[in-house]
Amino acid sequence: MKIDTANEPSPSRFSNFIVYVDESGDHGMAPLDQSYPVFVLAFCVFDKHHYAEIVAPAVEKFKFRHFGHSSVVLHETDIRKEKGCFSFFHNREHKERFIAELTEIIDASKFTLIACVVD
């Protein structure tokens, strides 16, 4: 399949990067949760080409392999607590394989991680 690129915007018109942002902790900080007394803001910055050609296809294949579809959100809390669609982790071998494959994808991905922690 040939994709028509004649009407694509000029590359200089858009950034070369895609940024994902996430937070952890309580941004209000009052009253302070003594068991988790920090607020963290983290940014993952990817080169768009690397993300589109390497990262996104690898994550999509990973999701198809483990869930049969790609709409699942890989949320750390749900994975760690084995909630929702991650309840299949009651099979330790599957959980270990899942974590190992996800770690391989992260290791192979080129990105810049920027984090800010408010103590």
Spatial ordering of strands, largest sheet? 1-2-3
Radius of gyration: 18 Å
Structural class: alpha+beta
- Kindly report how far apart the N and C termini lie: 52 Å
Instruction: Indicate the low-confidence ranges by residue numbers.
Output: none
The global form is: flat
Note the run of SSEs as H and E: EEHHHE
Find the count of extended strands (DSSP E, 2+ residues): 3
The largest pleated sheet is described as: 3 strands, antiparallel
Helix content: 25-40%
Strand content: 15-25%
Instruction: Summarize model confidence as the mean pLDDT.
Output: 87
Quickly count the helices.
3
Topology:
Blueprint lengths: L16 E9 L13 E9 H20 L8 H6 L10 H17 L3 E7 L1
Antiparallel strand pairs: 1-2, 2-3
Helix pairs in contact: 1-3
What does this structure look like?
The protein has 119 residues and is an alpha+beta fold. It contains 3 helices and 3 strands. The protein has helices spanning 48-67, 76-81, 92-108; strands at residues 17-25, 39-47, 112-118. Strands 1-2-3 form a 3-stranded antiparallel beta sheet. The chain is flat, with a radius of gyration of 18 Å. The N and C termini lie far apart (52 Å). The relative contact order is 0.17. The model has no long low-confidence stretch (mean pLDDT 87).
